[in-house]
Amino acid sequence: MEVLCISMFRFFFLLQFSSLALAYAVPAKYFINCGSDSSVNDSRQVFSGDHSSASVCFLKHSSTLKELNKSSTTPSLYQTARIFHGPSGYKFKIGENEGGYYVVRLHFYAFSSPENLSRARFNVWSAGFLLLGNFSAENQTNSPIVKEFYLNIGSCMSLRIDFFPVESKFAFVNAIELFRLPDNFIPNMTTHVTSKGNTSDYKGILSSVLRMSYMLDVGGSEENDILRRRWTKDDQYTKTGKKLSQVVGINYGGGDNGSEEHGLASNNVTAPENVYQTARAMASASGNRGRSFNISWALRVKRNASYFIRAHFCDVISSSQGLTYFNFYIYNFFNWSVRADLWPLSVPFYRDFVVDSDDSGKLSISVGPDEASIVKNAFLNGLEVMEIIKTRAPAEANYECKKNHKHLLLDVGVGASALICITVIVLCFIRKYGKPKIIRTLDWAPLSVKGGGSSHGKWGSSHGSSLGNLKLGLKISFKEIQSATNNFHKKRIIGKGGFGNVYKGILENGVKVAVKRSEPGSGQGFPEFQTEITVLSRIRHRHLVSLIGYCDERSEMILVYEYMEKGTLKNHLYNANLPSLPWKLRLEICIGAARGLNYLHKGAAGGIIHRDVKSTNILLDENHVAKVADFGLSKTGPLDQQPSITTGVKGTFGYLDPEYFRTQQLTDKSDVYSFGVVLLEVLCARPALDPTLPWNQVNLAEWGMFCKQRGTLDQLIDPTIKYQIDPNSLRKFSETVEKCLQDDGCDRPTMSDVLWDLEYSLQLQRGARQRNSREDTSSGATASIELSNVRRLPTLSTQADSEVMSILNDDSAAHSVFSPSHIDGSG
Is the CB of residue 632 less than 8 Å from the CB of residue 499? Predict the structure, then answer.
């Protein structure tokens, strides 16, 4: 039975790959001549002007530029450009059933113009990843720069390519190519090889973006293939081996791959015939034996990164079949036996790997003879190296994705074969491992709204679980949550985090809510779920997000919160589609968040340390009132009696307290440090970590402290608010940031001190506005002296906190906050 499974798999693989490859032709869209309303021809491909393409729209902050030199020898495609002076880009419409794996090619050429395009510096984001970081088109070769990427659009009906100028510069692009690649062109899983030669399975390639680094026609010359990819010579990367070329017909699909590790090359799609007709080898074409040595290639790569590698082989040099097999090496540690003797002559095949680079900045590839081989020879025909991009786009970037309807994965010609093959494989699986358990999977699937379902939770019945002991009166039935979210419809998703998706919902009483639903494999589980409920059931404050209820039926972990209309603070700092927050409003938001954190530290019974303070966990309601959210990592305890708590380090890099990281001693001053990073983020409107910047600027806290001490912090301020800030308000605010970010917790202020300082900074800002409205000529220094005499009063939240505490001490009052129509009191 197992032999039948393997045979059917090979049959299906060969049939599917060969039929799809033969049918493939490069689609007509999209080939865009940027900054123009006319079409040009480049390498037998028509590029349409972006003005005239109905399926393309470009966003705001853009203009066009044209080379004015009429006698220029610049190719037509590079005589125009689209310029972006602010965050902007292109949006491409993806048709029905046109989702899948795409190639994106960006063309840059700094032609002579008053704009001086070589000064441009920018980032490019697409599909949720950073394609280019801190990129400049300045080059010494006076030739176009082409950057090539492979990305998975999936079933999205649109794709955006966004350009973000940096350092007050601008962005530009001359041409864009975007078209769908053949099915199965890139696998989702292959062998993972570390720089030390250790191996494992690497899964999830299709969920990343690949950036082409090298396409080498080994032993050959430069040429373009059917996918318009540019293959180059390998001469500069090796000094060993002999270049061989044989004009023979390549037999695509001409053999049964003797090992499942090999991939069968597709007709002129995997690589063109010229790549397989040339090679670099040890021996000559006549079969004479050469000296026993390895042929090596040294390729410059990024340090400690991951690369997708495809090595191409085709035996066009042996005198007869079955004589040659040899070894393929990565970093001289990993050794894979290339069984060329299992393939007929002139049949091309390839092998894929994901390789981790070491800290040398070079990738070493080599082939060498196997002592057991009849003919001591080794060869390589082609080599592709692609960087696996891991830098994700910021969560606040608005990468909208409208989904297609489910499209056919197989054409009619192979549908029957696929069905037979899948059936056989499933039978093999059942025979070997027994009947699969599907109860767990069904627990997480969207269910019928009309379905009743068990009232038992994941941890026993609703009365017997550990949650049942809380007696919170906050339990909401799964049926009502389904109804509120339209059965967890994709259109209701408003966010996603480590815990799972967040949905917008409307309860039966008309109250808008945010529903956070956990999912299998998420980074958080029951402890965080229980902590969130425990903490939020004990507190109630204007600047803390309220818990409406929870559900633990059907192995679910669902939390229901009040709905925050304006979303996260981070989204308002970075989303170009949202208006920039004015400085006064930013101060008020910071003050609101500080009040919430101060209440956690001092007002809540026993004291609570949030442990994950960041701009994504500060939410804004319809009036921009700030509320702290996400208490899954919080720690409780009498902070006055137990100033530090020994615990495993948890939090978010960039916001994490360095003292807590070193000592694993958690204190309320850890929240103060994280909040200091948020304050700096609010002032500068840049992420806490930005790997696209120079190494010394990646960490905002470190870079901000350096600039503060050097007196250049004003250079980091968000340009949209730079001229709104009163100098005295900025001085007080920056001093507060500096105190929060002290390396030692004992040197940091308490959150109540931070709150007072922020309120003082706001008073300085308001005083400046009042002087301006009265056209007062008094200096800022005078105003500073006047305001410094203001008596230090208790924090503005003290009265509210005492009122809240009185409510929490009254059980009946606490329960009256919620509507009986949607609360299951049995929990």
Answer: yes
